[in-house]
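Question (not urgent): is this output format expected?
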Amino acid sequence: MKVLFIGGTGTISSAITRRAGQLGWEVYLLNRGNRGSEFKETGFNYIECDIRTESESAVREKLVKALGREKMFDAAAEFIGFTPDHVKKDFDILNGLCRQYIFISSASAYQKPPSSCVITESVPLSNPLWEYSRNKIACEEYLMQKYRESGFPVTIVRPSHTYDERSVPLGVHGKNGSWQVLKRMTEGKPVIIHGDGTSLWTLTHNSDFANAFVRLAGNIHALGETVHITSDESVTWNQIYKIIADALNVELKAVHVSSDFLDECSKGFYDFKGSLTGDKANSVIFDNTKIKRLAPDFCAKIRADEGIKMTIDNVLANRSLQREDPDFDAWCDKVIAALEKAKKEFC
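Got this back:
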């Protein structure tokens, strides 16, 4: 397999790049070269290029050169496409250069609020609460139009909350990721859990996602199809935060706060409306029948408690992953203090 990954060094794509290498695929990474030193050192092919700023003709010329005598990549995957302009440019560049174009969309594109917590690929796409999701929907619509009109060989993949060894999966965190929440826990400070913490959520380790993804690449039955890839496990947010506290060997001091209240309190600070009410605040149970039909031997193997423990061990061992966020820390203190003050007024 000769594959092109646009990006290839992010949370999801890094695991896929590793898995493709294990399978002996000839992997080309098209990116700016700012990340992914491990892949440069292990023999992956880099095409250093900023696809967002370079012209279609310039990018296509680099890809043709990389292909050599071969006419097409067996698959090209877009991991950093977020707006319709991005996928339109991909089409202009890759049409005729790949036998399959795989677009990474998002499960957050599914109907919000959901009419059912059970999610299949037939659930309508509609998310008025998050611009990120609406842009992913627009990308999907454009690509499927190209599939219908000209046979452009697209496969759309929708991940949900996928995490790796670099950041612990959370509901409420600041711009610098998960470390500040872990730090609050180890300091004995309370942490915020959105809602009452009982809504169901699905966490998928990126290595599990990669094992399913590689079965879609080069799969003729995946052409023109849309499929989500997630774990079959459902856990509550209370369970997720308890797993984190247990892994840190500390007591969980949880403060439950309405998602709407968090959104109102975070104006200009963080988009909790999109990430919470438009996504994580909703109970979801993913039906993975379709991916298991396309990849019959796929089954997510890493439980939430196992994956979170592995991630915490890695974060604690690497100071580069311990990015402090004093603004978020102060914001948490302020929100919690406001709630405590309100409680006292009614006691």
